[in-house]
Amino acid sequence: MAKERYMTDITSKKIVLGITGGVAAYKAAELVRRLGEHGITVHVVMTQAACGFITPSTLQALSGNPVYTDMWDTRIHNSMAHIELSRDKAAIVIAPATADFMAKLVHGHADDLLSTLCLARDCSLLVAPAMNRQMWDHPATQRNVTQLEKDGVTLLGPASGDQACGEIGAGRMLEAQDIADAVAAFLAPKTLSGLTVLMTAGPTFEPIDAVRGITNRSSGKMGYAIARAAIGAGAKVTLISGPSSQPVPVGASVTNVQSAAEMFAAVKLNAKQADIFIGVAAVADYRVEKPREHKIKKTDKAALTLKLVPNPDILAWVAAQPKPPFTVGFAAESQNLETYADEKRRRKKVNLIVANLAQNAIGADDNEVMLLDDSGTHKLMRAPKEAVAKEIVARIAALYGAAK
Question: 267 to each of 270, 273, 278, 328, how far by Cα in Å?
Fold first, then answer.
């Protein structure tokens, strides 16, 4: 079987991160790090008010690039920082964006470096609001939100929750990871634009009695990373997830299930609308034939015997439909990885199998996989699961495009 190293051509993106004077500015430090994990180069521009919450030196150390606060910064060769700083950037991201700064954007005010930079830009603008709940709910702010959206500005959030003022409500800035994921998705090539992706992820849980069950060690990390990558590629993603503590991918429609039977029912409900099906979930092969309604009491006199029966094969069912979606399966093996994975691909007649050694992947933040399709085996180098997910989605997009 042909073997080759497969890597996508991922172009590094540059952005301006604008920080305004809100207490949520402390989250900008983590945001810079999270953006870097996505391969995004960050150049920070701060308002004077922002400098009262977090120092430029902190952001410079984390970004590895100079931080700009002054319209007349002499480090810009032509003294036109408000023009030059955005010219080679894919986007300007304002996080946090105060109510005052959002009003400036709406009315075209340009009285400092960041507001002037936004007015003079020829790249995309994304805004992550952060303010007290009364400020967010105020009619003036809501009018500004409406106008920003009409002007083509992308709003990220806000979230609802505890606020620095001690109140609870809408206006809280999204967490750094959510913003970074959203920015990465915004910048990603839209290779799956207009397509519907149906996915499964995480483990399943098969009850034995009222308190016990059969499950596996799947964390859901790989599946959730692929969901984020598919969203970034422009797909409409429906994610059917077993029990997992992973954060919900921004933009995904999520159905939470427990057992393999529940997962199968949810897949059958959505399969006809899917262009692509990706079965990442570690579905239990067997379930207890007759789960007990109440807890089985331990005794010292007798062994406990459970009768297990097969669960439905969700991947095989999808691939066997009269007009199946482009079908992608996963194979987690402990030995003979390529042999067992290719046998699974051929037997279930799926378009692509993603295979990995279970002992090297379960619970880890990185992964090393091989992709098996009709053209052969393509090995991906070990990398963070977010990066591996993007490569898997790129391969799916290429194969889907060729098939259509």
Answer: 5, 10, 11, 14
- What are the angstrom distances between the C-alpha of 362 and each of 72, 203, 223, 344, 365? 52, 11, 12, 20, 9
Rg for the chain, CA atoms, rounded: 25
Q: What is the three-class DSSP state of 337?
A: helix
CA geometry: angle 72, 73, 75, nearest 5 deg:
140
Side by side, which strands form the sheet with 40-46? 40-46, 13-19, 91-97, 124-129, 154-155
By residue count, the chain amounts to 404
Which CATH code is given to the segment(s) 3-187?
3.40.50.1950
Strands 196-201 and 236-241: parallel
Among 7-11, 216-220, 271-275, 376-380, which is the least confidently predicted range?
7-11
Would you say 71 and 55 are in contact if contact means Cβ atoms under 8 Å apart? no
Q: How would you write 74-117 as a 3-class SS string?
A: CCCCCCCHHHHCCCCCCEEEEEEECHHHHHHHHHCCCCCHHHHH
What's the pTM? 0.74
CATH topology for 196-403 is Rossmann fold (3.40.50)
Instruction: List C-alpha distances in Å: 364 to 284, 303, 361, 370.
Output: 20, 36, 5, 17
Q: How far, in Å, are 204, 252, 345 from residue 277 at the CA level? A: 18, 14, 14
Q: What are the catalytic residues?
A: 165
Residue range 286-319, pLDDT digits in tens = 999 999 889 988 876 678 888 999 999 999 999 9
Domain boundaries of the chain, sorted by first residue = 3-187, 196-403
Assess whether the region 3-187 and the region 196-403 belong to the same CATH fold: yes
Residue with tokens 């969901």: 227
Structure tokens at 404: 């259509």
* C-alpha–C-alpha distance, residues 271 and 277, integer Å: 8
Sign of CA dihedral 194, 40, 88, 146: positive
Per DSSP, what are the bridge partners of residue 153? none
